[in-house]
Write a structure and sequence with these properties.
This protein is an alpha/beta fold and about 350 residues long. It is built from 12 helices and 10 strands. It is about 40% helix and about 15% strand. The longest helix is centred in the first third of the chain and has 17 residues, at about 5-25. The structure holds nicotinamide-adenine-dinucleotide.
Length: about 350
């Protein structure tokens, strides 16, 4: 699902990469579907029934980006962004995985000192279906001057359990370290969060479980982010920490993400939006989209070697000095979207 803005441009490059793998024997069937503004323009809805049906029947969805200023005045249910929320809800994608890694060649793009972030490779897992964003009661009530705003932090054992399992399993695919983030010193919902983490830990004796209060975690991410491997957090804290972590890298066009269900089915997409300011001009960095395809191969299709092959090709391309405009220094030659994609393909 390529979507809008730069979505189709960067998806073209990711499909070039998948084509190389198919030529080399990867058995994967791909189908296209309209989504977001493109779907609204064609059939009047950002998530048409045919697109949803295809998403439900697929093992994975490779998603570009949706949205654009021409859709901002539409009623909320017709806005392109509704498609992502609809897909998450209908496919029960409850676990959001956001890696934040810094390729050594791009360490000076971060606002932190290069030695703090060079070689950074962490994964933030955010729960997507519970917490204060969905908890009841919620309201603003009372007379003006004495109004009260209420939201409720709400987590069930089952919700905590399933995201913790994703955390432990992900740690196993990496460096076997899981840091659970909570605020158990003041919040009962977060005491339950910690209790469940401790309860599940014996099922994963090879994974080292630690706990950190969210305020400390926010500080440690800036002070010494390389101490972490996998962090798992609820919806609210994960929302904030994952944005903080992505900005450590300094390059929005580089970061992929995954949203997974309980069986490993997933939706894979760049963390950035549709970048209408540069769409259609061959300026977009396709690496977040290409790395999203690598994540798809690792987490849904369980093909770590194939995922590594893509990631190594990206690393090599950056080491050769290729830079799209978002990651280039002012005096550097700028590669186009397709030049970057072609270089990755050549390096595979
Ligand atoms: P954005 O991420 O689209 O762009 C922010 C800035 O980063 C822009 O200057 C853009 O040119 C640049 N940028 C983003 N991706 C890039 C890439 N691959 N290569 C080079 N530069 C890149 O955020 P925005 O401008 O706030 O939002 C634009 C539209 O995207 C809005 O309609 C928004 O709702 C939508 N959006 C969609 C998603 C999604 O599809 N998951 C996520 C965020 C925003």
């Amino acid at each position: 699902m390529a979507g809008d803005g730069i979505g189709p441009e960067i998806m073209t490059e990711a499909l070039k990469v998948l084509d190389v793998l198919k030529r080399d024997g990867l058995k994967i069937e791909t189908e296209w579907a309209l989504v977001g503004g493109a779907a609204y323009d064609a059939v009047g809805h950002p998530l048409p029934p045919a697109t949803l049906a295809l998403a439900k029947s697929a093992d994975a969805v490779l998603f570009g980006s949706v949205g654009g200023p021409q859709y901002d005045a539409l009623p909320r249910e017709h806005r392109p962004e509704k498609a992502i929320l609809g897909l998450r809800k209908e496919c029960d994608f409850f676990a959001n995985l956001r890696p934040a890694n810094v390729f050594p060649e791009l360490a000076d793009a971060s606002t932190l000192k290069p030695e703090v972030v060079a070689g950074l490779d962490i994964m933030i897992i955010r729960e997507l279906t519970g917490d204060i964003y969905f908890g009841e009661p919620r309201s603003i009530s009372g007379e003006k001057g004495q109004r009260v705003g209420i939201n409720t932090m709400h987590y069930t054992e089952a919700q905590i359990r399933r995201i913790m399992h994703v955390g432990f399993r992900t740690a196993r695919q990496r460096n076997n370290k899981l840091c659970s983030i909570d605020k158990m010193n003041v919040l009962e919902a977060m005491q339950l969060w910690r209790d469940i983490a401790i309860e599940i830990a014996p099922e994963y004796p090879d994974v080292e479980l630690t706990h950190m209060l969210v305020d400390n975690a926010a500080m440690q991410l800036i002070r010494n982010p390389k101490q972490f491997d996998v962090m798992v957090a609820g919806n609210l804290f994960g929302d904030i920490l994952s944005d903080e972590a992505s900005m450590l890298t300094g390059s929005i066009g580089m970061l992929p993400s995954a949203s997974l269900d309980a069986n490993g089915k997933g939706l894979y997409e760049p963390i950035h939006g549709s970048a209408p300011d540069i769409a259609g001009r061959g300026l977009a960095n396709p690496l977040a989209q290409i790395l999203s395809a690598a994540m798809m191969l690792r987490y849904t299709f369980n093909l770590p070697d194939t995922a590594n092959r893509i990631e190594d090709a990206v690393r090599k391309t950056l080491a050769q000095g290729l830079r799209t405009s978002d990651i280039a220094k002012p005096n550097e030659v700028k590669a186009s979207t397709s030049e970057m994609g072609d270089a990755v393909v050549a390096n595979m």
